[in-house]
Each structure stands twice: as C-alpha cells, then as structure tokens.
Amino acid sequence: MIFDKNTAKKTAELLLQINAIKLQPQEPFTWASGWKSPIYCDNRVTLSYPVIRNFLREHLAKFIEEKYGKPDVIAGVATGAIGIGMLVAEQLNLPFIYVRPEAKKHGRKNQIEGIVPSGKNVVVVEDLISTGKSSLNAVKALNEANANVKGMVAIFNYGFDIASENFKEAALSLHTLSNYENLLEQALDTNYITEEQQKTLQSWRTNPAEWNQ
C-alpha cells in the first residue's frame, strides 16, 4: 500500500530522473533469479543525490510516525536499506540497527548488528520489495530477538501478488513511497514510455517468471 498518490508519483519521478529505476521493455534485463525483466531498480543510487535522499528520508520518517507512532528503534535490511534506514533513524533521532540475511559465520556470529531490541517497538525500513522473502526473513530474526515489529516501510514495491500473500501470511503491514502502478503512470505522463510500452510493462507484472516480450 502506498502512503498517498502525490508522494508515489513524485517518488517515481525522482527515481526515474536519476536512473535508480530504468525501464527497458525492448531490451529486458536478466535478474539473478533468471527472470527477464523490463525494469531494473537500484535505490542505493539515491544515496548519491542529497536532495533526493533527503526527500526519501523526510517522507519515510513522517509516514512512520503517522502510521505506527514513534518506535523505539529503526531497523534496516542489509545491505540495500542500511543507508536509507540510517538516514530515517537520524531524522527521528532513534537508535539504528540492521539485519543480515543470515548470521555471520565468524566473530560474534551476529545476524542483527547493533543493540538487539528485546521488548522494543521496531519499524523495519527496506529499499525495495519484490517477493518480500528477504524482507520478511529480517522480520523473523527480529521477532526471534523478542522485538515488537510494528510494520515495514519501503521506497518502492513491484506489487507482485506473491509479495502481498507473503506479507498477509506474516500478518505484517507494509507501506511504500511508490509502487509499480504509479511508476508506469508517471513514466507515461512524462513521455518516458509510450502507451504501447506501458502495455508491455503491465503484462510483465502479471506473470514475471514466464514473461516474454
């Protein structure tokens, strides 16, 4: 679920502007999963643009307080959301931790880096939601550390059905600054894509694993 339409369109505009999101329906990318995709999203690029990263930081922080109240801790999901999560924590003047995909094999063998938030209210920050699997893996680690995970916020969501199902099954709320639907609207409004390309992009989202342009 997006926070609001205006923010969703503006976020999409900014991400397209700096090529954090690229749309190439005629020259698809190949994801690590093997999926052919007309879109590639790397929100870490936003950290190189102070004005844009500040926009994301301020809006994520604002909506966290509006939707969840002020938590005790902000958690970022490694590695993509460490940067933006830290910025949000700074904006809210809150402690920050981050969660690895799995515990380290050496040293203290931590999966959660920082002070483990036992009994504390935590909001998780992500940069991108695809299937939701890695995001919810971080939530699982926090739950096992006896944290009270209030919800998750993210910059962008592809809007896959599998992600909606995974978050529903986990009984966890998710809000994002923008999503695929609003991205395509913004891209069409600014002539970044044509109507024909929009149809191609929409068809991909319905069955990304078997999509063929």
From TrEMBL:
Q: Where is the signal peptide?
A: none
Q: SUPFAM superfamilies annotated for this entry? A: PRTase-like
Pfam families xref list: Pribosyltran (PF00156)
Catalytic activity, per the record? orotidine 5'-phosphate + diphosphate = orotate + 5-phospho-alpha-D-ribose 1-diphosphate
Q: What are the UniProt keywords, alphabetically?
A: Glycosyltransferase, Magnesium, Pyrimidine biosynthesis, Transferase
- Binding-site list for orotate: S130
* Gene Ontology molecular function terms on file: orotate phosphoribosyltransferase activity
- Phosphoribosyltransferase domain: which residues? 58-150
Residues at which 5-phospho-alpha-D-ribose 1-diphosphate binds: R100, K104, H106, E126, D127, L128, I129, S130, T131, G132, K133, S134
Top-level division of the source organism's lineage: Bacteria
Which Gene3D superfamilies does the entry mention?
3.40.50.2020
Top EC class, one word:
transferase
Known EC number:
2.4.2.10
Task: Please name the CDD domains in this protein's record.
Answer: PRTases_typeI
Query: Pathway involvement?
Result: Pyrimidine metabolism; UMP biosynthesis via de novo pathway; UMP from orotate: step 1/2
HAMAP family, per the entry: PyrE
Show the PANTHER family listed in the entry: OROTATE PHOSPHORIBOSYLTRANSFERASE, URIDINE 5'-MONOPHOSPHATE SYNTHASE
Could you describe the subunit structure of this protein? Homodimer.
Function recorded in the entry: Catalyzes the transfer of a ribosyl phosphate group from 5-phosphoribose 1-diphosphate to orotate, leading to the formation of orotidine monophosphate (OMP).
Q: Which family does it belong to?
A: Belongs to the purine/pyrimidine phosphoribosyltransferase family. PyrE subfamily.
Q: What is this protein called?
A: Orotate phosphoribosyltransferase
Please name the taxonomic classification of the source: Bacteria, Pseudomonadati, Bacteroidota, Flavobacteriia, Flavobacteriales
Its gene is: pyrE
